[in-house]
Amino acid sequence: MTAPYRHPWAEEDIDLLPGTSWTRSRLFHGLTAADLKRIEPHIDLHRLERGDTLALHGRLGIVLTGALREDACDMPSGDKILGVAFPGDLLCPGGQRVARARTDALTASGIMTCDLDDLARLMEDVSKLATNVIRETQACVIRSVDWFHLRGRQTAMERIAGLIATFSARQGHPETVPLHLTRQDLGHLTALTFETVSRTIKTLERDGIIDLVTPTRVIIRDHARLLHATGTGAFAPLAA
After folding, report:
1. Residue 109 carries which DSSP code?
2. Which element (helix H / strand E) includes 82?
């Protein structure tokens, strides 16, 4: 039995069991009960376990619970993580340019999907849905750009502090923040070596800003100092 949890994007407490609250996604804000009833037959709900791969195949997806990693596959140096999707994030199917991308669950996750052709027809009939899809697609692009901006911060400390602050904010500021990823993956996200990632995290712990509970779980002891360590500028929208 899972306890209700308030996500930043939800209007009220929801059950962490996937498939119970797809209507509370930002994609459906402002829609009438009649609109939602019309849309419901076109919605599929999926339960992914850790390590499962999400195959969209011409479908739009939204993360309801959990977290997923998005990787570029078959790179000369091996697969590399591009970003992490958290509850509320839009998942878009790959086209020709990103055909070798893959999305895997980092933890047990609930996903809502809708066929793109069905969605296009629904958008023609429900203007508010069309507006929401455009807004959420723009937000998806901005988040992708922000991941690249994070790599451009000047110091290793700014990048790692920014990454931890982002993971905390995107998961609703839990007491213990799951990082989900290995040091090597964190290095790929921040354009740092895994040695530098480990050394920087240890510095944050030594300075009393975080506690390292496990290699992939931290407790933020001093939020103000952590945010100060992120620097300013392009990172700010990502951690908001």
Report:
1. E
2. strand 80-85
Nearest alpha carbon to residue 189 among 85, 35, 42, 44: 85
pLDDT for res 144:
81
Residue 92 has pLDDT above 80, yes or no: no
DSSP state string for 33-73: HHHHHHHGGGEEEEEE-TTPEE--SSEEEEEEES-EEEEE-
Burial group, residue 60, by CB count within 10 angstroms (0-12, 13-18, 19+): buried
Q: How far apart are the C-alpha atoms of 36 and 31, rounded to whole Å?
A: 7
Q: Distance from first CA to last CA of the chain, Å, rounded?
A: 31
In Å, what is the CA distance from 68 to each residue of 12, 41, 49, 112, 130? 23, 25, 10, 13, 25
Residue 163 has pLDDT above 50, yes or no: yes
Q: Which residue from 119, 148, 153, 152 is spatially nearest to 136, judged by alpha carbons?
A: 119
Judge residue 158's burial from the number of C-beta atoms within 10 Å of its C-beta, 0-12 exposed, 13-18 middle, 19 or more buried: buried
